[in-house]
Automatic annotation (TrEMBL), chains A, B:
Primary localization: cytoplasm
Annotated organism of origin: Pedobacter yulinensis
Free-text comment on the cofactor: Binds 1 pyridoxal phosphate per subunit.
Keywords: Amino-acid biosynthesis, Aminotransferase, Cytoplasm, Pyridoxal phosphate, Pyridoxine biosynthesis, Serine biosynthesis, Transferase
GO cellular component: a single term: cytoplasm
Listed name of the protein: Phosphoserine aminotransferase
GO molecular function: O-phospho-L-serine:2-oxoglutarate aminotransferase activity; pyridoxal phosphate binding
Amino acid sequence: MKHNFGAGPCILPQEVFKQAAQAVLDFNDGLSILEISHRTTEFEAVVAEAEKLVKELLNVPAGYSVLFLQGGASLQFAMVPMNLLGEGQTASYLDTGVWASKAIKEAKMLGNVNVIASSKESNYTYIPKEYAVPSDSAYLHFTSNNTIYGTEYFEFPETAVPLVCDMSSDIMSRVFDVSKFGLIYAGAQKNIGPAGLTIVIVKDELLGKTGNKIPSMLDYKQHIANGSMYNTPPVFSIYVALLNLRWLRSKGGVAEIEKENIAKAAALYAEIDRNPLFKGTCAVEDRSRMNITFVMENPELEKPFLKLAEEHGIVGIKGHRSVGGFRASMYNALSITSVHALIEVMQIFAEKNK
Amino acid sequence: MKHNFGAGPCILPQEVFKQAAQAVLDFNDGLSILEISHRTTEFEAVVAEAEKLVKELLNVPAGYSVLFLQGGASLQFAMVPMNLLGEGQTASYLDTGVWASKAIKEAKMLGNVNVIASSKESNYTYIPKEYAVPSDSAYLHFTSNNTIYGTEYFEFPETAVPLVCDMSSDIMSRVFDVSKFGLIYAGAQKNIGPAGLTIVIVKDELLGKTGNKIPSMLDYKQHIANGSMYNTPPVFSIYVALLNLRWLRSKGGVAEIEKENIAKAAALYAEIDRNPLFKGTCAVEDRSRMNITFVMENPELEKPFLKLAEEHGIVGIKGHRSVGGFRASMYNALSITSVHALIEVMQIFAEKNK
């Protein structure tokens, strides 16, 4: 058995893989999910149920639309300013890592951007808390969880301007209040489903106000008007997302999975703090529950530790080159058994290297 | 057994479904294709082989890049002018159907467009042949096969300006000379693979010349520089496309499949022309081999015919609402056995309704 700590595309529940494989062979009446039209009643029901489940699991209030799009969060970096940032307006951004700064770079190509806080000077080891949001900002953009650096917002920015958030790596991992947000987007390939799908949750009343000319595929209003079927959607990715959302509901929903995520993160951080060979890389109060970054006091031991971990079936813990060391990504589908397996290897290794 | 004549997403070979299902359960070393990182050696090999196979099967000359993108042909409708149509320039377009006119609509949002010929006045039943391409056009855009109306270009436009083609519904179905083109794009969900993937083949020297500011995800040069991995690609759709391209090579490649496609289309058109109940909708010389549109002399018989066809396992032949009647889509993976099954039902029905 493998313990998959990969950062993404990443682990999904085994039962989802089984159901997905079955649908590739026979989704409906002998036809594969890969060969049916997206205009069939059967697939329209898939999209409708997936939308309903996103709304139910996140308690999305009335007045918001849920969209299933393509292009990942990276395409949202451009779509957000195209749709929300008018000529002469300025958008505020918080810079907390590689993805946040890519969002800033793309927005700058399309309009005026004000970076109101950044933790870049410390290699993004913390979430900035002291900043003022100009009240005339078109919106405030931030990244709720920083996959590469291992930080996460546990208190969201408070502001009267529309809040826009890239939640790619922690959506569906914890309870939060959608009504505080103007727009949320997330690449599916962490806690929602496979790669090739992006979820957008947008407050309808914010749209159509900039006067920008927006190509149809980049216009949220077009996708809303067409129920995420403006053109052929990523059929299989949406179907697998539905299977995974059903699994999440069967586990008791987001509130229940959050308890597990808290327990998993607490267990691993406790070991990092206890074990003399390891140390965390981020400010304790901002430590992510999804992506746990840590290094060794003695970097020469990192290779042998990685080797031992691999021998124990642990995969995907090599750290991103921007941080080094290790990154244990612990998304919803990773069981606490896998976390304990990693902790055990850390303890065995510490014993060997006393 | 079903005979899947659906227009897309559509039939793929049964062995591709089997291999794809297996990879969902265990792609590599116990891990599902849905849970591996796109940065693994194993997946990088998938992308490299898929690219190599596209180049080999289409005989793509040096100086062209092959890209695996998202967003379908519809996103290309915007990306093409963003990347190729500079301020003050004009692009020429040929209007041969719904998709061609959508491409025109999107391009008009982004620059100057000149529609140099259209068959709209006849409900797109033929391919216009008389037109002049202004020699200062940034490019000439056309749609090689019109999925909805059932027409196909058998002679491509001759022009000195760069030729841009939406080949979504006939790429990989017939031999053609890539070197005549500046840019080719195709939604994968006909002859390449499942929905959620778009293939672009572009002549490198055409790029980077407009001075347009292009968001990274919409910039071909960014995707080329990153080997189609600027961000997380649609992993599963690329993998299934690879399986399908391997199947096509094992069949003898595009030249061999073209022979089958010619035979399949000839058989069905012969029946349409012979059978007194049916008639084709398009100019004979422009009849598509991929999407065969036909109606009944007596429209009241269409429902009972559809019912009889369904009883014989024939699915997906209801015509698009723009044309009515029937559309038999006969992509690469549809066997001649299925075509004969349809012909047989047409003959049985004619016998019953003499």
